[in-house]
């Protein structure tokens, strides 16, 4: 799929916002983070402008769009967007806001349509975003240019092995470049099957009282909490009900830290697996070794956790892919899909879907533990003293290097390395004026 060019439009002025230099909130060489970055409202607004608006963000999976007119509504940061397959079979994404008074154009979660018609005054847009009907058009002046009032389209849209990403930033590097070295790790989930992947069973959505970074950071870097936070779940899942063996509790593994802020931790012990029996039995591990190589089958393909900066995360073992949508500094919405290989028989796909729900669905035995942690971390940040405390991210400091097996920089599995990488990227974006802050560069309407 090719990138979508920006639709040039002149726009009126934006209100200038003073930006804060966030350097003093971090001492990442020494593993220190000031908690204010999780709760301050003005930093949150800056984050929408400088982290979300310029970055490539995950939208949906290609398999959600089968026929022209199929659409899905989601968010990029807090911007509501419609993702739609046009009659030319091209996937586009637009702001889900009418050009007349800004009404939400599409109020459905997903579906199929020939046109998006605003329920306020009836302006109507086709699935390529073009304004195709304006009621009472005779009452507009002669110089009303209907062509100029189409939906506001993203600057670039592209896919990586079924995953659709977009950005508002016309200057963003191509998606493949933005994913960088992370693609080698992502392929351990996305490239097992020559037929590719698809999503099954719809999208689960739930709200949590926590800053989105708590979740994104944890999925990039945190195996550390597993033994403690998920102790009861591990006990339930152990064959004799007495709890997991040492090779699971003190498991060997690695954690990848990408210079672009992505991160991925994965155990490498063959017994440290939690996959569903039906799914496990279906896989042809010799063929997978042939396709992905031994290293990926024995590491990143198993029970790992990963974040693609900023807010897309996944779990290779159960096909959970999810977005942490920011909803203010103190709240996030989790939107989660189940990803499966296309050539799996239906019963195997279903086994994976149910396994994902049991473990990491909104009431999953692991997910509930994680959500409780993030909510309670946020709840203790509201006070002046507690909200500006320094937090410790020192685990694994000075222990990251090339290991000669896994590409890029890795460290021990039990490490804050990828979290430090995540906040290094976040800090740098927060301190860099985005394209829309440069004179004459802001072409999105
Ligand atoms: S706000 Fe959409 S037609 Fe008026
Ligand atoms: Fe967890």
Automatic annotation (TrEMBL):
<dbReference type="InterPro" id="IPR001663">
    <property type="entry name" value="Rng_hydr_dOase-A"/>
</dbReference>
<dbReference type="GO" id="GO:0051537">
    <property type="term" value="F:2 iron, 2 sulfur cluster binding"/>
</dbReference>
<dbReference type="GO" id="GO:0004497">
    <property type="term" value="F:monooxygenase activity"/>
</dbReference>
<dbReference type="GO" id="GO:0016705">
    <property type="term" value="F:oxidoreductase activity, acting on paired donors, with incorporation or reduction of molecular oxygen"/>
</dbReference>
<dbReference type="InterPro" id="IPR015879">
    <property type="entry name" value="Ring_hydroxy_dOase_asu_C_dom"/>
</dbReference>
<feature type="domain" description="Rieske">
    <location>
        <begin position="57"/>
        <end position="154"/>
    </location>
</feature>
<keyword id="KW-0520">NAD</keyword>
<dbReference type="Pfam" id="PF00848">
    <property type="entry name" value="Ring_hydroxyl_A"/>
</dbReference>
<protein>
    <submittedName>
        <fullName>Large terminal subunit of phenylpropionate dioxygenase</fullName>
    </submittedName>
</protein>
<keyword id="KW-0058">Aromatic hydrocarbons catabolism</keyword>
<keyword id="KW-0223">Dioxygenase</keyword>
<dbReference type="InterPro" id="IPR036922">
    <property type="entry name" value="Rieske_2Fe-2S_sf"/>
</dbReference>
<dbReference type="InterPro" id="IPR015881">
    <property type="entry name" value="ARHD_Rieske_2Fe_2S"/>
</dbReference>
<comment type="similarity">
    <text>Belongs to the bacterial ring-hydroxylating dioxygenase alpha subunit family.</text>
</comment>
<dbReference type="GO" id="GO:0051213">
    <property type="term" value="F:dioxygenase activity"/>
</dbReference>
<keyword id="KW-0479">Metal-binding</keyword>
<keyword id="KW-0001">2Fe-2S</keyword>
<dbReference type="Pfam" id="PF00355">
    <property type="entry name" value="Rieske"/>
</dbReference>
<keyword id="KW-0560">Oxidoreductase</keyword>
<dbReference type="GO" id="GO:0005506">
    <property type="term" value="F:iron ion binding"/>
</dbReference>
<dbReference type="InterPro" id="IPR043266">
    <property type="entry name" value="RHO_NdoB-like_C"/>
</dbReference>
<dbReference type="InterPro" id="IPR017941">
    <property type="entry name" value="Rieske_2Fe-2S"/>
</dbReference>
<keyword id="KW-0411">Iron-sulfur</keyword>
<keyword id="KW-0408">Iron</keyword>
């Amino acid at each position: 799929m090719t990138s979508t060019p920006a639709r040039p439009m002149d726009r009126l002025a934006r209100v200038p916002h003073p930006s804060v230099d966030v350097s003093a909130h971090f001492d990442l060489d020494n593993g220190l983070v000031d908690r204010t970055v999780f709760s301050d409202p003005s930093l949150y607004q800056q984050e929408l402008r400088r982290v979300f608006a310029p970055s490539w963000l995950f939208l949906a999976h290609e398999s959600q769009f089968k026929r022209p007119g199929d659409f899905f509504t989601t968010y990029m940061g807090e911007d509501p967007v419609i993702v739609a397959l046009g009659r030319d079979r091209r996937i586009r994404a637009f702001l889900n806001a009418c050009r007349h008074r800004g009404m939400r154009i599409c109020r459905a979660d997903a579906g199929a349509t020939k046109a998006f018609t605003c329920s306020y005054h009836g302006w109507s847009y086709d699935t390529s975003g073009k304004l195709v009907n304006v009621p009472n058009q005779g009452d507009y002046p002669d110089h009303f240019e209907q062509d100029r009032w189409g939906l506001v389209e993203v600057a670039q849209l592209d896919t990586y092995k079924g995953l659709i990403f977009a950005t508002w930033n016309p200057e963003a590097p191509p998606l493949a470049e933005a994913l960088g070295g992370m693609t080698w790790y992502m392929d351990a989930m996305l490239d097992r099957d020559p037929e590719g992947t698809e999503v099954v069973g719809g999208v689960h959505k739930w709200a949590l009282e926590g800053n989105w970074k708590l979740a994104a950071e944890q999925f990039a870097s945190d195996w550390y909490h597993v033994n403690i936070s998920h102790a009861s779940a591990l006990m339930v899942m152990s064959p004799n009900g007495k709890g997991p063996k040492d090779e699971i509790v003190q498991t060997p593994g690695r954690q990848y830290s990408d210079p672009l802020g992505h991160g991925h931790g994965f155990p490498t012990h063959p017994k440290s697996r939690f996959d569903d029996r039906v799914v496990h039995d279906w896989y042809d591990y010799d063929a997978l070794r042939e396709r992905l190589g031994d290293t990926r089958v024995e590491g990143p393909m198993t029970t790992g956790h990963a974040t693609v900066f900023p807010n897309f995360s996944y779990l290779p073992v159960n096909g959970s892919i999810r977005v942490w949508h920011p909803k203010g500094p103190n709240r996030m919405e989790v939107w989660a899909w189940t990803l499966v290989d296309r050539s799996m028989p239906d019963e195997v796909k279903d086994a994976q879907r149910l396994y994902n729900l049991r473990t990491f669905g909104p009431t999953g035995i692991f997910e509930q533990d994680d959500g409780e942690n993030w909510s309670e971390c946020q709840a203790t940040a509201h006070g002046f003293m507690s909200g500006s405390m320094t937090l410790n991210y020192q685990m694994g400091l000075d222990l990251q290097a090339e290991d000669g097996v896994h590409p890029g920089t890795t460290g021990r599995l039990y490490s804050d390395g990828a979290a430090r990488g995540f906040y290094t990227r976040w800090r740098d974006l927060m301190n860099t004026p985005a394209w829309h802050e440069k004179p004459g560069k802001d072409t999105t309407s």
